């Protein structure tokens, strides 16, 4: 905006200058005509006369012109062998407008028969030159001063606000999320509803001596709805709601984070009662003493200030802190004690009823759901899915229906979306040879046959040789029920399932391929945990290896060996025995049902994808659970 004012001011100055500084016309005469004009004489006039490339200003009468004439005649003296006036003499003079009118110069030139040419006065050059050399630099200087002044003011403001909190106040005009939009976390909703009720009607609790909780910590895996719960609190509460991320406190300058914590709680005290939400608390609340910078680095000072504000000599009354993290194991113990985070709420992966409720929420308007969609079946078919996974599945189903030009989202769209989220997108463009395709078919048929003939395992859900994600084929199983405690037989059945693909390759082709790498990783890891953590081997009911957590690195490292080398050899032998026994069991099942393996592989080569009903039709009904253990 300032630059436009500068331009307008410049144009105004230029116009005023042109108005009061009009240029006079210039008369150009041939050299001979100029000579005649001088010799014939002329009346007195005022103006400028060009002589020898110099302007001569003054009043020119007959005497002066006679002197000029004499000078010119001398220059053309025949003795000087010059027949023309020297080129340096200018036959040009400038007269003012008043002189032209008073002395009628143009009429006299016409009377003498002197040929002349009048150059009109220039409209721009002189004024533009003056403007460009005086006014423009001044305007540029003023504009630069204004710009620098504003920059210095902005820098000052940023410097003053560097230690200010970056918390955002939730506005009523923003998209409102309520507890009705959150499903599958009923216990967490109940605890948070009590906090909101306390803020709305504190006397209801205070009359019995109850005190408002200082903080609520939401813990759980990623995607389970912790941030959405906080948004629902903001939508339900009639009090100010401030949200900030844990990383917003930490800066490279020591003391800035602590300053922002102080400013955040000061803002909360001014607007008490209020709620402050800190997302990803582990960014600022990690265990002290685990960093490189000793006890005085920026993050630890920020954490210390947070602890003081939550419960110190100057406790923040009426300010409730809600925080969320998916790494509660790395938090400092001082944060987790009563008086700071009084309530620690686990927001875990939803069960089958929770998944169905979440699907009900995420399939509302504007989704157009077909009548054949059974959300209960989808909930049973998505064990281990978080709320974010289910939301992504609903969105993928809508996109797939749109690509197929459908008017509604039917069950087939949801099945495709579920497979896409669970196993990755199809890669039908991948070029695979017939031999490699055949190996893949027998490999996946081996997995599917294990799920069918080992009753302790979960039944087949889908078997396909269409490449998905990074795999050339996928065999998925579907749990019959929600499991929170795994039995030894179920773990062994999973190892047998993992080894079935390699065993099928060896039986049919007599060689081994690299396709079983991930299968072996799963089998070995599961067998080692059975030995070292769950006491499911001849090593006895003992745990071996203390899990050594490095909170500074933010992840679990390998177990710390707290046993002898002889015990380590015994552990390796026990793991080897479990995997070997499961391998032999898988071979026994495949050799017994070799004809079924071939039929299953041929069906995969023909149809590429088989579901539960197809597999049961080829192999017959699944056997019932046996009385004796597997191995």
The percent range for helix content is 40-55%
- What is the CATH third-level topology name of the largest domain? Methane Monooxygenase Hydroxylase, Chain G, domain 1
- List unreliable stretches of 5+ residues: 38-62, 80-91, 154-160, 292-296, 549-558
Number of distinct beta strands: 16
Report the sheet with the most strands, covering strand number, pairing sense and barrel closure. Answer: 6 strands, mixed
- The secondary-structure class comes to alpha/beta
* CATH H-level homologous superfamily name of the largest domain: Peptidase M41
Domain unit count: 4
Mean pLDDT: 77
- The dominant shape is extended
Spatial strand sequence of the major β-sheet: 6-8-9-10-7-11
Q: For this structure, what is the CATH class of the largest domain?
A: Mainly Alpha
Number of helices: 22
- Give the termini distance in whole angstroms: 83 Å
What percent strand? 5-15%
Give the C-alpha Rg.
Answer: 46 Å
Q: What CATH architecture of the largest domain would you give? A: Up-down Bundle
Subcellular location: Membrane
Keywords: ATP-binding, Hydrolase, Membrane, Metal-binding, Metalloprotease, Nucleotide-binding, Protease, Transmembrane, Transmembrane helix, Zinc
Cofactor: Zn(2+)
Family: In the C-terminal section; belongs to the peptidase M41 family. In the N-terminal section; belongs to the AAA ATPase family.
């Amino acid at each position: 905006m300032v630059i436009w004012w500068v331009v307008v001011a410049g144009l105004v100055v230029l116009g005023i200058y042109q108005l009061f500084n009009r240029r006079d016309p210039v008369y150009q005469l041939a050299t001979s005509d100029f000579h005649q004009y001088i010799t014939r004489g002329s009346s007195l006039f005022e103006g400028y006369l060009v002589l020898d490339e110099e302007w001569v200003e003054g009043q020119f009468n007959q005497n002066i012109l006679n002197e000029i004439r004499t000078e010119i005649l001398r220059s053309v003296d025949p003795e000087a062998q010059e027949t023309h006036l020297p080129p340096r003499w200018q036959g040009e003079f400038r007269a003012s407008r008043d002189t032209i009118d008073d002395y009628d110069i143009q009429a006299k030139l016409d009377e003498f028969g002197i040929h002349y040419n009048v150059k009109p006065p220039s409209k721009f050059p002189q004024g533009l030159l003056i403007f460009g050399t005086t006014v423009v630099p001044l305007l540029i200087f003023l504009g630069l001063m204004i710009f620098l002044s504003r920059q210095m003011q902005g820098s000052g403001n940023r410097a003053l606000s560097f230690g200010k909190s970056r918390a955002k106040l939730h506005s009523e005009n923003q998209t409102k999320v309520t507890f009705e939009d959150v499903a599958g976390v009923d216990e967490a909703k109940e605890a948070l509803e009590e906090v909101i009720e306390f803020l709305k009607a504190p006397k209801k609790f205070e009359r019995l001596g109850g005190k408002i909780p200082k903080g609520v910590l939401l813990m759980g895996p990623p995607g389970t709805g912790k941030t959405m719960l906080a948004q629902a609190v903001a939508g339900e509460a009639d009090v100010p709601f401030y949200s900030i991320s844990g990383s917003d406190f930490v800066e490279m300058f020591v003391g800035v984070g602590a300053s922002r914590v102080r400013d955040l709680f000061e803002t909360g005290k001014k607007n008490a009662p209020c709620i402050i939400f800190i997302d990803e608390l582990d960014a600022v609340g990690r265990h002290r003493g685990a960093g490189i910078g000793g006890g005085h680095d920026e993050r630890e000072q920020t954490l210390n200030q947070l602890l003081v504000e939550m419960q110190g000599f100057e406790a923040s009354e009426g300010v409730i802190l809600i925080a969320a993290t998916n790494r509660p194991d790395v938090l400092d113990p001082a944060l987790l004690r009563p008086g700071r985070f009084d309530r620690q709420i686990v927001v875990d992966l939803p069960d089958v009823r929770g998944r169905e409720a979440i699907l009900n929420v995420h399939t509302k308007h504007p989704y157009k759901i077909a009548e054949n969609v059974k959300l209960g079946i989808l909930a049973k078919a998505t064990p281990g899915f978080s709320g974010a996974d289910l939301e992504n599945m609903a969105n993928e189903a809508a996109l797939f229906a749109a690509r197929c030009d459908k008017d509604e989202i039917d069950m087939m769209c949801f099945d495709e979306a579920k497979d896409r989220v669970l196993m990755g997108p199809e890669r039908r463009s991948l070029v695979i040879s017939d031999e490699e395709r055949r190996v893949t078919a027998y490999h996946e048929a081996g997995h599917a046959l294990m799920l069918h003939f080992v009753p302790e395992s979960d039944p087949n859900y889908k078997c396909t040789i269409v490449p998905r994600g990074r795999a050339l084929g996928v065999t998925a199983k579907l749990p019959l029920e929600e499991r929170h405690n795994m039995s030894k037989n179920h773990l062994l059945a999973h190892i047998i399932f993992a080894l079935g693909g390699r065993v099928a390759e060896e039986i049919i082709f007599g060689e081994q391929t690299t396709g079983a790498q991930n299968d072996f990783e799963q089998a070995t890891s599961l067998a080692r945990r059975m030995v070292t953590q769950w006491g499911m081997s001849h090593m006895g009911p003992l745990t071996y290896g203390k899990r050594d957590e490095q909170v500074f690195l933010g992840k679990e490292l390998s177990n710390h060996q707290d046993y002898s080398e002889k015990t380590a050899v015994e552990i390796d032998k026990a793991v080897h025995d479990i995997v070997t026994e499961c391998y032999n069991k898988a071979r026994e099942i495949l050799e017994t049902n070799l004809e079924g393996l071939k039929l299953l592989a041929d069906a995969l080569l023909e149809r590429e994808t088989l579901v539960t009903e197809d597999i049961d039709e080829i192999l017959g009904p699944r056997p019932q659970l046996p009385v004796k253990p597997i191995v």
